[in-house]
Amino acid sequence: MNTTPPGPRRGSATALVIVAALGYFVDIYDLILFGMIGRPSLVGMGLGDKEAVERSFMLLHNTQMLGLLLGGILWGVYGDRRGRLSVLFGSILLYSVANLANAFVTSMPAYVAIRFVAGIGLAGELGAGITLVSEALPKGKRGYGATIVAAFGMLGAPAAYLVGHQAALAAWLGVAAWQLSYLIGGGLGLLLLLLRIGVYESGMYAGSRAQQAHQGRFDLLFRNRRWLKKYLQCIALGLPTWYAIGILIFLAPQFAEALGLSFAVDVPRAIMLAYLGLAVGDVLSGLLSQLLRSRRRAVGLFLLLCLLADYGYLLLQGPHSSPFVFYLFCFCIGLSVGYWAVFVTIASEQFGTNIRATVTTTVPNFARGALVPITLLFIFFRSGHYLGLGTLAAALIVGGICIGLALWAVRSMEETFSKDLDYLEEHLP
Questions:
Q1: Cα 316 to the chain's mean position, in Å?
Q2: Which residues does the chain have with pLDDT short of 70?
Q3: Contact, 345 vs 143, CB < 8 A?
Q4: 26 phi/psi in degrees, rounded to 5
């Protein structure tokens, strides 16, 4: 018998979607903002040597990534043990305060510590938001809620790009442009916390606690072969997204050189256009999954589109390509991996209520963290010290591996559209 207490009313479910979408907007704003203004902030702190700036930037980036990986586990377990809402608002508070602190940083040790804290904060919001939305909305419509959350959240990247270019406003306020960007991000997050009125905890979660199930047991995923396979399949679905963004877009100047392009590439613009494509893709993939009544088929079609966009970017450009064509490819790459909303929804639908937040929070962060081994694999194939295949060939191989693993995962995993999520994972080996 279903023992779940009544869930939130329709109005509160709508409020929940809005709050989760706004929270993810600020989350992506901060995540992408650092990539855009991290180097200028280091120059503003007095690091003039280009190599020193690059080393410091990579240290900060890796520290933030470590925070994301650790935070994914911590917030996920906490969400299953203490509630989804506590994670949603706790993570927003943490990365907002870190943003504000970043605006006043004056030393590298402080900067490293703050980016680590920011990484922990950034790890929790999406998983908690999608878990709440999945459990609050009717099973036939939860894909719409996740689509709104992810699509609106991706617009945080263009917002970061626009804010980062407000040098005149920053000068008028007496701060550097990078400081203004951090201040705005922190302020937006704190304002968002005022919207928590009218948002309620998941009824499914309350029911699972009443049944005294194993709550937030991350180790359970490794004690059952079937659960571990499902968990790894969920992570594999996210690999093409971070290959496309982390390699093809973030390293765009290296590909422009390898392709023989005759113009300088503006990386922040490439990132902005890719995330605009991601936002559009999230809407289209979410609607497609509802139309087809299948998460798997929608993701499968987008993976084929990803294959075309990535390989077109690498094989169809040359010395005569124009900036318009290059940036159009950046947008198309983002569009093709814009199944992020469906990807996170699939993760939330694969497991029972007692470990759902753990899975939904760790999966996207582990997919983000997979960028580290993806980058190392790219360097291995590209570098002359190893195989020496060159930039383009290395990207083609690594992209094929990432997309191939995702296709394997989507083909062999369970279809979860309209799946009843009101159940527990209790059968230990």
A1: 28
A2: 1-11, 196-216, 384-386, 426-429
A3: yes
A4: -70, -35
pLDDT of the residue at 386: 64
Rounded Cα gap, residues 275 and 319, in angstroms: 26
Q: What is the pLDDT of residue 3?
A: 44
Residue 196: per-residue pLDDT: 65
Q: Which residues of 134-148 are buried (b: 16+ CB within 10 A; e: fewer)?
A: bbbbebeebbbbbbb
pLDDT score, position 216: 60
Residue 272 amino acid letter: M
pLDDT at 347: 92
Q: What is the pLDDT of residue 2?
A: 45
Non-local CB neighbours of 197 within 8 Å, separated by 6+ positions: none
Going by C-alpha positions, the residue among 389, 288, 291 that lies closest to residue 342 is 288
